[in-house]
Design a protein that fits this description.
Length: 206
């Protein structure tokens, strides 16, 4: 995606239950990335396990699907993001094409800039997206260590996206999917209500 290349500190405080306890309650369900990206619905990147440009500089990544074709499975997203070293907001358009996974569901997404994504979990309000390729991502996670570092998820880069109307919810199942299926030695909170408001006055088109 445009400069984003993907991408809650409050929510992280909520993630305190053990893996063993969570695994009993985690419902196995088939994700549907195409349905999750609803037209005119605003999504916020709330956490990720990778650094986009180094030093965790890019924050407040916001996305909205502005057009969607259910026949060709092509869509366009409007992105807003800022660099936390300053107050300037940026805006761009990303075009994507969705492809079926092994279950026949449109969970794989390719962008015209070469980035590739795969939806691992969706529930209508929260989604976990694996970053299969993005040339902006720098090195491996280095902050916010957790204890759930196990299994074959090592090195699997992911992000959590939440709909605007559900930002105040805990999304336990979504977080569980993230911790089980993605590398979680480190997690970068990517959303702050105060810092991510009032973007219009300082926004420029990228």
């Amino acid at each position: 995606m445009v400069r984003l290349a993907c991408t809650i500190s409050i929510f992280l405080l909520h993630v305190t239950t053990s893996f063993a306890e969570d695994s009993k309650a985690y419902p196995a369900k088939q994700p549907n990335g195409w349905d999750f990206l609803k037209e005119d619905v605003t999504l916020y990147l709330v956490a990720r396990n990778y650094d986009l440009y180094g030093d965790n500089k890019t924050d407040c990544l916001i996305s909205k699907t502005v057009s969607k074709d259910n026949q060709s499975h092509k869509l366009s997203q409007e992105l807003h993001f800022k660099n936390t070293s300053g107050s300037q907001w940026y805006k761009g358009i990303v075009n994507m094409t969705a492809y079926r996974d092994d279950h026949g569901v449109y969970n794989f997404m390719n962008t015209t800039t070469g980035a590739r994504y795969n939806f691992l979990y969706t529930d209508g309000e929260c989604g976990v997206v694996e970053v299969l390729y993005n040339n902006h991502i720098k090195s491996s996670p280095t902050t916010s260590s957790t204890n759930d570092t196990k299994r074959s998820n090592e090195g699997r880069l992911c992000a959590i996206w939440v709909t605007e109307g559900a930002l105040s919810k805990a999304h336990d199942d979504c977080w569980h999917s993230f911790r089980c299926e993605c590398d979680n030695k480190s997690i970068y909170p990517a959303f702050n209500r105060t810092e991510c408001k009032n973007r219009a006055d300082t926004e420029t088109r990228n």
